[in-house]
Each structure stands twice: as C-alpha cells, then as structure tokens.
Design goal:
Blueprint (H helix, E strand, L loop, with lengths): L6 H8 L3 H22 L6 H15 L9 H58 L4 H12 L4 H8 L3 H23 L7
C-alpha cells in the first residue's frame, strides 16, 4: 500500500464521518483491489472481497493504533479478509460436496429400494406359482431370515424336510424365473 492517509482523515473516520470514508476509499481502492486480485483464486469474487474489506475498515477503524503506519494496518486487514474468504469458500465447497454425496447416496438408496421392491414383487409373483409347502419355507428363510433349524421348529417338521423343501423350492424358482425371463410367465 503506497498511499498515505492523513491522521485528520483517520480521526474523522473514527468518528464515523462518511466523507472521511469516501476519501480513504478513493485513496486506497486501486491498491486494495490490485492486492485482492493477485491473492484471490476466484477472480469473480474479487469485488465481493473488496466490499467486505471496506466494510471491515468501517467497522473496525476504532481498533487502529495510530502509532503504526496506516498502510500496514490496512494491508493486514486485506490479507486477513482474503484468507477468511478463502476459508469460507473452502467450507462452502466442502458443504456442497457433502450435499452432493448425500443426494447421490439418497438417489442410490431410492434406486436400491426400488430394485429391492421390484425383486420382491418378482419373487412374490413367482411364489404364486409354487405349492404352499415350498412357499412357507422360502418365506421364513428369505423374508424372515430364519435358520433352517428355526424353520423346522416353527413348522414342526424335521430339519431334513426343511432342507429338501428349500432345495426343491429353489429349483422350482430357477425354472419359473427362466420361464419368466424368456417371456413365458407374466408378473402381476
């Protein structure tokens, strides 16, 4: 910052004199803008950063220690504001990325749910073409996730019968699915 600001202007600025602010702005805008332009990675945000800098000048001029050169104080403010802006931009980017990930996961979840529902519908329609004894084993095994031992207990049949019905049901399902896949069975 090359431009010198008189102590009189700074004193008036500390008293919230808008004309003093205009004088300060006119005397420093070129240097501030140039510095921010060099430091900012996103050139479209330069005007916003510069506006924030002058807002901070207005707000915090009472913190300026007049024993130090004003350009040093102003440059410190410029560098801090650019750094803060970059940090906020980084946080916004992180939030945006998290939002995109969540939306993607949500859509994937919806797709997975739809796929699961479609698979369940297909399985239910295929079960319609199966005997009750085979159906009950599949329902307990796949929908309720019972072990074969638990199924035997619930249905009050030997575990060997559960195993054979499970095997027979899967064989029957494969045949029905292949028939469905070839267009032989309609689902609905």
């Amino acid at each position: 910052m090359k431009t010198m600001i008189s102590t009189e202007v700074i004193q008036r600025l500390k008293k919230q004199d808008i004309r003093a602010f205009d004088e300060l702005y006119s005397a420093t805008i070129k240097d501030v803008y140039h510095t921010v332009y060099i430091l900012a990675s996103n050139k479209q945000e330069v005007d916003d950063i510069v506006s924030e800098i002058y807002y901070q000048v207005w707000k915090s001029i009472h913190n300026y220690n007049e024993s130090l050169p004003f350009p040093h104080w102003l440059n410190g403010l410029v560098f801090r504001q650019v750094k803060n802006w970059k940090r906020k931009a980084w946080k916004r980017m992180q939030l945006f990325r998290k939002k995109m990930i969540l939306e993607t996961e949500q859509f994937d979840s919806i797709d997975d749910d739809l796929l699961k529902d479609e698979n369940k519908q297909l399985l239910l329609s295929l079960l319609e073409n199966m005997s009750y004894k085979l159906k009950e084993v599949l329902v307990l095994y796949y929908f309720y996730e019972y072990s074969q031992k638990d199924i035997a207990s619930v249905l009050d049949i030997p575990i060997g019968t559960v195993k054979s019905r499970h095997h027979l049901a899967l064989k029957h399902l494969r045949k029905l699915y292949n028939d469905f896949d070839k267009g032989g069975i309609s689902v609905c």
